[in-house]
Amino acid sequence: MPTAMQLTLIIGIELALATLAASTVMGPVISSNFPDPAILQAAGSTYAFATNNGNVNVQVATSPDNGTTWTLTDIDALPDVGSWATTGSTWAPDVIDRGDGVYVLYYAATSPSQNTHCVGAATSTTATGSYTPQPQPIACQTAGGGAIDPAGFQDLDGTRYIVYKVDGNNLGGGGPCGNANGTYATPIMLQQMEEDALTPVGDPVQILNRGPYDGPLIEAPVLILHEGTYVLFFSSNCYNTDLYDISYATASSILGPYTKASSPLLVTGDDGLTSPGGATPRGDGTFMVFHATVDSNPLTRYMYTATMDWSGIVVSA
Length: 317
What we know:
The protein is mostly beta strands. The protein is built from no helices and 21 strands. Strand 15 (218-226) and strand 16 (229-236) form a beta hairpin. The protein is globular.
């Protein structure tokens, strides 16, 4: 597999917004199982966090050069998953710098009492941890199958949110995604948070659901604001198939409605990638980390990076 790949995708969008392109894909930059990566830039350093690898609950990688080269550490950012959760079942972490000397780690983990995944939070005074979990999860969505794939977001007015997926796959029914080929929904939810980024405010709001081209599910949401446009990145289809992709939708309001781009940003076959997904862009929208599958048995996903170009305003009917 090559160590550097070039990719240019110019994608039409069905409302007024900046044109988004994944212009340069690099990788793999971590040649080890490092799925669902999240990126954090803080205190002059760059970090990536990923789903458990069986030995640590939250993996940590560091970059000395703004995301060009990476070193996978042996740090477990979350050695204690909390009394509500099960060790070794942590998924899709995301870390934010709260701005007051505290970092907040969002993660999903199995809750024995709920018999499903819940979304929780933990805090630390250093980016790499160790993080101390909160005593209770933020969201469980038990009736819908659980809650996974959390990511934090702060709006221009300072209001904090998290986005996450309702895990209808966990309800069963067969098919490659486990939710009877879409019988059970997998909506993306937006939850407002208190200033502490730990305490929910009111009820979550659904901002996106799967459409006819998304297969049985959408998942892995991450929200950024780019030049007044809210851009929601997500993955479609089943992670264990070649149809898995990186997609996005846009809105003029954080509550939506969100309009999906006419084509995914990255799909299988683009410069040798297989099942790209789990993308997390930097807040400025110029760079992202994501994973792609390099082996299906056992499932192994390496981390890649991409720069993104935003050029002009496109309006089309």
